[in-house]
Amino acid sequence: MLLATPAPRRAGKRLLRAGIVILSMFLLPLGWAVTAHYAEGGHPTDWRTARRDSAGIATDPATTTEAVIQVYAAKAFRWRGAFAVHTWIAAKPQRADHYTRFEVFGFNVARGRSAVRIQSGIPDGYWYGAQPILLREVRGGAEVDQLITRLHKASARYPYHDQYRLWPGPNSNTFIAYLGRAVPELNLDLPPTAIGKDFLPDGELISTAPSGTGIQLSLGGLLGLIVAPEEGLELNLLGLSLGVDLNPAALKLPGVGRVGSNRSD
Known about the structure:
The chain is an alpha+beta fold. The chain has four helices and twelve strands; from the N terminus they run H-E-E-E-H-E-E-H-H-E-E-E-E-E-E-E.
């Protein structure tokens, strides 16, 4: 007579198979991204000589009188660029003759300075040899000037001026996600390769997504979930993000980034 497999054992096997499938969905794209990064080669190894000039994306402030906010991402330096990006915001009020960059630098903390750096600079500069991509742009008049003022105020409130941790945060992407929540008019949809964006400040377990919309659950940036109109559905595991976006349709893969339609705004 055949004996039936006990129900708890069958349930355990199903959970194990589901866990293997989910883990593979994270690790396979990540492995492909790392392999492709090193196969590409030609990445700078010395930060002192790496390219930092303009990528030719931002408009010249000398000829642009309107206020502008731009959000950029570029592959991180050295080995981190295989699967992660660095993000920053560049902003120019009406009739200003330069852009101000909002970003976080880890080496500033090691030198006893604030991790947050807000100063004039090249808005679309190569990030130590990596070409930036424009994630979001907002232009206008007084209303955009007001958003820039709010970016400055939110930066001053950022709780990790004296802290930086590469993984799982707080890092540069934690800071930009924080600004996105503080200024939801940016409708900021950070790429899945922005590791650290899911680290919620002050140990919070629940918040809005970096776009300032929907809902985000996170356990210290190590396990979490985003459900939001801008980001779509994202699952975060150990800082890596896997998800699907319907506006416009695209997959979000660890290490690889967004696969499918790009946002038009």
